[in-house]
Every structure is written in structure tokens, then in C-alpha cells.
Amino acid sequence: MQRSFKAKVIVSFFTIVNLALLGMGTLYYYKTSGDIERNTIDSLEQLVDRSVTILDNHMDNIRNEAWSYFSDKDFQVFVSNMSSAYPEKNSYYKNRLETSQRKFNAIGMIGVYDLYGNELASGQRSMLNAAEDNHRTKNQKKTLIEMALQKDGYPQWLVTHATAINSGNLNNTISFVQALKKISTYSQKMVGVIQIEFNASLLNQSIQDLNSGAGKDFVIVDRQGKIVFAENEDEIGKEIGDEPWYRSLTLTGKIGYRKSTIQGERYVTLYRKFQLNDWMLVGKIPLDNVLGGVKQARKFTLVIGVITLFIAMILAYFIAGSMTKSIRKLREHMKQVELGNFKVTVPVRSYDEIGSLGMSFNRMTRQIDYLVEKEYEARLLKKEAEIVALQSQINPHFLYNALGTIDALASIEGQEQISRISQSLGSMFRYSIKGGQVATLSEEVQQVKLYLSIQQIRYEDRVTYQIEIEPGLEEQLLPKLVLQPIVENAIKHGIEQIRDGGCVTIQARSIPDGRMAIRVHDNGAGCDERRLGEIRNMLNNTGFASRMADEDRSSIGLDNVNRRIRLYYGEQAELTFDSSKGTGTEVTLLLPITHAGRDSDA
């Protein structure tokens, strides 16, 4: 099925826009997805870094507070004699512990134990009765004392349990544990252990904040990959050091991330090392969660693309309509030309290629209309010529015999001038009616000589003539009877108007543009500017209507010659007319030089 030009423009425009949008949309999507992924991971890194920094600050405060007790000699003495200490001392240090706990919200409880299991504690632990204490914390307290003594006073963070005040349930937490020594000049004797628990609810909330959102899983691990603290207490103590996603972490810097695949699902794994110990916060997040903004960007890109395509189609329709409107108009006018109407004109509203096509079409129709009119005029002239020829051929022997009789009688009576006139008229008559519409230049000149011989008899000494023909031009062909009407016009309107000294000059020369110039000059009366303008306008208007309107004018001979050479040679032929009052007139014929044979049937 053949498509219209408008449809092709729409399809081309839509294809180009579609490809451009597809390319731009793809680039935008990948650029946006990359930016969103990087920004999201950067935000997660910042969140992890901020969370660990806060925990580090809390842990540093706890360590500093423990050091204040570790370096207090009076407190060392108190712990070494805790079992026999005065009640006032117990009350004093208990208040001090309570004060330390209230000073930092990160402290959940401070407990001090001697080597015999005696205890002085603040906060939650102080509110438990002896039965609960023995039941829940005996083993933990024993373990803390053993581990602290093994470190010989070196501080450490351990996983512990804290008792909630409201529910009495055990909560997972971490504790700063350090052995207390009684330091003297000669010895450093172990006297007990101090434990400062990290506020369990605060620690748990920090991990919960990191895990907010589907699929997130952050935990605190030690250097061997053992989970120290997690939101899900079942994970505490679990070894993850051998898991692929954990091993994929390079752990070379303070903080970092890496993409990994776990059971066919892509994850982003992050880590941030603690400053005060060898612990590390690690976590994994499904990549789809990270790229949630990318999905929104993809949807947004698709929506914008569809809207843009819809707008592009509408614009393509109107642009194609605007572009093809002129072509449709041109096509409609072409159909009128096909029907024979050559006077149509396409309105040109632009100067682009389509406008240029319209102007060319207008020039073509004007030229065709001109040629049709010329052809019509030529056919009419041919009809007229045929009629005249037929009329002129009526009984030619009678005219010949009549002129012969006049010539014979003139000879008998001794009238030589009448005899010469009869002979010249007979020759002119035979030339005009013999076959063919073209003649050689020499034949035309001979016809002019016969005419001028008759005029010399008529005007006696008032008329003379000169004829100059360039050698080689004698056999050039031209339409028959083009010189005689011009010479006749020179005699009638030029020489006849002066008393004596009239001269007609005929010259034929070749010119550089490949034409020959035939000039007929007379030194007669000439004409004024007004009359000169009228004649030139007549010669420039070769239409058939103008000819009919000017048939009764004295310059019909010039008009006839002008139209015949134009019909014969086309635009290559010219007839110019120059004249001035009192100096004479010059008529010039510019005709192509031809070397074709005579066409007697033309």
C-alpha cells in the first residue's frame, strides 16, 4: 500500500523522536539509577557511621567513668573490705554509683563485686531481692569476675544481660568490665571487679533504627565474626565469619561497602569499625530496597516518555499537515492543468524548497499558456495565409496575360516606363505567389530592387538606394517578403515626406552572437517621441488581439514582419525601431544564421 507524503513525514518524525526518547530515556535511567544507588549507599554509610560514632562516644564515657573508680585509692580500700565496711561507706558509694548512672543515659547499671561475691550495685540490680539475684545473675557474675581477673586489670567489653525494671525480664546488652586493684608502692593486688552495663534499651534502639525498613539486618560482631549484639537475641553468639557475604568485605578501611549475592538475591553489605575495641557494625540490605528510588525514576521516565511521544505525535501531525499543505495545493492546481486550465497560479507563502517549487510551477504554467496562445495565433495566421494564397491564385494566367498585354501596348506606343513597371510588377507577382514561405537573402534583395525601381519611376530623382551585403550571407534563408514591407514603410513614411535627396540604405552583416543584422535606413522625415513609443509598444505586443486592433494602422507592415519572424525563429529573432524627427528612421532585423536547406513546403 502506497503511503501519502504526509504519512511518511509523520512516521519519520515519530521514529526520530521515538529513537531520541529511547536513547535519552535509557541514558537518563542508567545515570539516575547510578546516582540514586550511590546516594543511597552514601546515605547508609553516613547513617552507619553516625550510629557507631554515637555508640563509640557512649562507650568512651562509660570507660572514662570506670577509670574514675579504678584510679580512686579510697574506693580500692572500700572494695577490698566490702564485706566488713561500715554502713555509711556502703551508702556513700552506693549514692556515688547512682550519681554516675544518672549522669550518663547510656549507663544502665554499675555493679562492683569483691572477690568473694559481695556486691554493690546501682539502678536495676539494686531493686532485685536476693532470691532473684541468686537465680538470674549468679553465673554471670561469676563469669565476669573470672574473665576480669584473667585480663589482670585490662578493660574489656563483654556480652551480658540486664534486668528490665518494669518487667523483670532479662535484656541483651554489653558491659564494660575491668578488674579493680589495690595499688601500693610495692604491689597491685586484685580486690574486685567493676561492671558498667550499657543501657539495654538505648543499645537495642540504636540497632532497631538501623534495621528499620524491609530486609535490613545490622549486627555487632567481634574480630572473629561472632555476633556480639543483635536485635534478634537468637543471633547473639552466632558465627558469621565464614558466610560469603561477610568474607567478601575487604575490611581494609574504617568504613566500607560491597555488593554481593546471597541465595540468588543481590545485597549491599556495609561495615563500620568501632574505635575503642575490635568490634564492628556490619549489615546487609537487599539491593532492590536500595534501588527503590530507581524504580520510581523508571516509572517517571516511562510516564514522561509516553506523554512526550503523545505530544510528539500530535506535533508531527500538525507539522506534517503544515508542510504538506502547500504540496496538496500544488497537486490540486496540477490537476487543473491536466484538464487544460493553464492560467492557474499557486499562492507562494514561503521561500523554502516547496515555495521554490511553487514559483517554478507558476513560471511553467505561464510559459505553457504563452506557447498555447502562440500556437493558436500561428494556426490562425496560417489559416489566413492559406485563404489569401488561395485568393491570390485565382486565375493567375489572367493577371499574367493582363500585365503582358499592358507591357506590349506600352512598347508599341513607346511608353518605356509603363513597360518597365509592368515587367517589375509581373516579377514581384510571380515571386509572391510561388511555392514556399522562405527565400534566400539575395532573392529578398532582388524583390526590393524591383520595388525600388518602380518607386524611382514614380518619384524620379527624389529616391536613391544603396545595398551592401556581406559576402557569404546571400544564401541565408529567411521568411519570404520581410524586407519589402520595411522598405515600403521607409518610402511612405520617410522619403515621401521630404522634397528631395531621399536615400534608402540596406546593409546585411553577421554579428558575434551567431546572428545576422539586416538594417534598413532612410533619411526621411522620421517621427517624434510619442509616435516612436507607440510603434515600439506595438512591436513588443505580438498578441493576436493587438494585431486585430491595429490592422488599420499605418505600421501594420512592421507588425506583420515582426510577428512572422518571431513565429519562425522564436525568441532568437528581434526587430528594433529607431527614429528621430528630421533625421530619419532605422529598422534592424536580428535573425539567426542558418545553414539548413530550403523548406519549400513550410
From TrEMBL:
Chief location: membrane
Listed Pfam families: HAMP, HATPase_c, His_kinase
InterPro entries referenced in this protein's UniProt entry, alphabetically: Bact_2-comp_sensor_kinase, HAMP_dom, HATPase_C_sf, HATPase_dom, His_kinase_dom, Sig_transdc_His_kin_internal
One GO term describing the cellular component: plasma membrane
Domain Histidine kinase: 482-595
Superkingdom to which the source organism belongs: Bacteria
Gene3D superfamilies: 6.10.340.10, Histidine kinase-like ATPase, C-terminal domain, PAS domain
Membrane topology: Multi-pass membrane protein
Transmembrane regions: 9-30, 300-320
EC number: 2.7.13.3
GO molecular function, one term: phosphorelay sensor kinase activity
Keywords: ATP-binding, Cell membrane, Kinase, Membrane, Nucleotide-binding, Phosphoprotein, Transferase, Transmembrane, Transmembrane helix, Two-component regulatory system
Every HAMP domain range: 321-373
PROSITE patterns referenced in this protein's UniProt entry, alphabetically: HAMP, HIS_KIN
Cellular location(s): Cell membrane
Enzyme class: transferase
Catalytic activity annotation: ATP + protein L-histidine = ADP + protein N-phospho-L-histidine
Family annotation (PANTHER family): SENSOR HISTIDINE KINASE YPDA
Listed name of the protein: histidine kinase
Organism: Cohnella abietis
